[in-house]
Fold each of these.
Amino acid sequence: MSQVTHKSRTLIAAIGDEDTITGLLLAGIGDVDAHQRANFLVVDSKTTQEQIEEAFTSFSKRKDIAIILINQHIAEDIRGVLDEYKAAFPTVLEIPSKDHPYDPLKDSVLKRVQLLFGE
Amino acid sequence: MSGARDNVFPTRMNLTVTKTRLKGAQTGHSLLKRKSEALTTRFRVIVRKIEDAKLKMGKVMQNASFSLAEVAYITGDISYQVRESAKSATFKVGAKQENVSGVMLPAFESQVQASGSQFELTGLGRGGQQIQKTRAVYIKAVEMLVELASLQTAFVILDEVIKLTNRRVNAIEYVIIPRIENTISYINSELDELDREEFYRLKKIQGKKKERAANAQRELERKAAEMPVVADDNDNDDEHGAAGSSDTPNILSEQNDSDIIF
């Protein structure tokens, strides 16, 4: 188990629909670094699944991101990738959106809990 | 011997050494088991907290989006402006380590840099107050999300640690302790067998000694009985007869001693 301090992880990334991203950006989490990489992705009807997967993978590989927020209905689209994701950092948090209230049954993390206590 | 055992020489010293190892393994096993139980209790507490927090988060996010909808109603769509003016994050998180029953768990804390300069121009002149209000609501929401994320990271890491500890407990219980017990019984049986062999050898030698002693005694008695017969040849025929009553020829009486000249 690595005991590396994660002092360099400071950013909150977000993958969500327009309203969610707007709200989160209003709170101040938005960041565009020197390489023009943003830490957020707006998903609309034109975004393909590969784009979402790619954004998620690149966020999870970055060393300066501590938390990834993702709307639950978008998480459903990349459920396969999410279920495979087992790292502790960055943490993946599924949040509800305006049109899709939170459903605990679909959450990847909670599903792992069920595995432990479902017996 | 059924089952695996360590390859050691079956000596008494190795027996004590192995017994000490068994003691050590048993202590380690009970300690690890206790650690695993403590962590699992902690784990359950966190899981419940997470479940509650997630439900609360659902409501908080709902409120926040209502607030945003109000802004859109009053000000119009600000999303483009907001997206363009997002340059460097004012809401960051700091990580600190907490020690929870022997496990270093990270915790996130929200760090809001109150620069506020990012969105000063947004909605200026049109419903700027509403935007500020929405901004505050969303900041509160994200702070809650950060707490949740902390809980979730703790959850994931604890999960790993618990699995690891349980694996070790099982390994000790089902692999290491049986091995050591097999080694101990092997050494004991070998030592017993050596003892038995010693005992048997001793008994055999004692028996042989006794036999030799008995034979020697008989020889002596025979010689003693024949001696006076050789000296007084004709006299004590009875004794001679008694001494030489065996069918073997009595060489002492039959021949004269011949000179030993080769």
Amino acid sequence: MANLDKQLDAALDLMRRLPPQKAEKNLSDCIDLVPELCEDLLASVDQPLRILKDSQTGKDYLLCDYNRDGDSYRSPWSNTYDPPLSDGAIPSDQLRDLEINANAAIDSYREMYYEGGISSVYLWDLDHGFAGAILIKKVGDLSTKIKGCWDSIHVIEVQEKSGGRNAHYKLTSTIMLWLQTSKAASGTMNLGGNLTRQVEKDSPLNESNSHIANIGRLIEEMENKMRNTLNEIYFGKTKDIVNDLRSMIPLSDVSKQQQIAEELRAKLGNNQ
Amino acid sequence: MSDTEDQINDEEKAAIVHGFINHAPPGEVDDVIRDSRILLNDDNTFKDGIVEALSKYQQSQFMPVNVDDENAVLLTAHGLQDNGRFIDPATGKSFRFDFSKKSCVDIEDGSVDNGDAESWRSEIDAAISEYVKEYYPAGVSTVYGSQDGSDILITACIEDHKYSPENFWNGKWRSEWKITISGNSATVAGVLKTQVHYYEDGNVQLVSQKECKDEVSSVSSEKQLAEAVRKLVEKFEHEYQAGVFDNYNNMSTTTFKALRRQLPVTRTKIDWNKILGYQIGKEIGGK
């Protein structure tokens, strides 16, 4: 009989292999097979971010496991649950102040890099610090032929040290990127998936290095790095693999070229 | 998501497992089967229908198998007979495929009769084989021929794959070309499919497909048609591959940037102290 840990490993392995374009269905299928894994899977498998509108402020916010309580989701704008909960989990007053400022800062960050889209930040208390989820979603409906979507899910753990003069930050970031094109020459191309990276850093805490500044810098650096990696993998690596499957020029020409190159190398080597 | 009290039944569970298998990326069906078996945790339900599901999957994947020491053939729906045996139209052999041993078994010679289609089939087979050698590093092709009323139907299947699980990637190309010979003209219709999976610290997949069609207006002989088909296949497949590469460049420079810029318009990274100052200023100035 398989135990629950082994089953969780199997589900996570499966989620790395099944087409990411169908992430939500894959996850719900796994849960249907092993309902006992529901909470664990929801917590460990990233899903494309869903959106709700805060009826009080009219602003959109993003949904994840960290602002969920039962079937309700908390808005970072009004700090209330939808559907309403009388006793839903909310951050302490002090943390809520930080959460409000964090949302404002990330809102500006989002506008500078994404020129649109939606962001949300959710914080919760820990024993010696706090943790947070920073979410960003940008949908591109550039034309009928090109569609795309970017989802950032950052989870940060903050441990305060040295009487509040230092802090240790641990950031786990997942970016989900999906592009679909429908053009005459290339038919339909559907390029989708996600990447996850982690980083840890110690930073001082003072006037010019507030939590928000430290976390913001970490996230900005991480997203910029991951954007480059995504560019390399999506548009470089997968393209190279297609090139390995079929050659654009006849293979006999390729081997002729290789032969000429080797002869040249040998000649140059002899002349040295 | 609320706790679900209505559990699904064994049949629905088996359907989910077969669905997983159906969507396994090239080269990874064994991993998907292993994971599914652990999740299902019920070997009786697991065994029920698993071989059929796997066979169907490998047929759609054009799995190449060795029918003898010198000849490879593709497993496809076109080659599956009613009795569950597969045919190799080129060598004339038929066989069963043992998915656990991963080999052809019960091989019988001289069991394929392509009838009047054979003269057309063998010329196109020769031309396609030569074409595949020219452009596919490890490609395999199988060409079937049959009669459809007064028409002759030739189906050419091409497959190439590269599996590199130690580097966390796998890829496969499939083309399926249907040539319908009607009187002295022929239509050539193709479906081209590429799939790539990259999974180091993530899960990235390319799934792409293109359909193409053209006519050979005047067919004078089997050899002439085979040459014309080869030219069309080469032209369309080249166009598709070139289109894919162009599109990759376009996506990288234009589409990707429209989702998230490399840097803000200011061309510098954000001054996080200014961002906070701006927000505080907003609050002092009133909402």
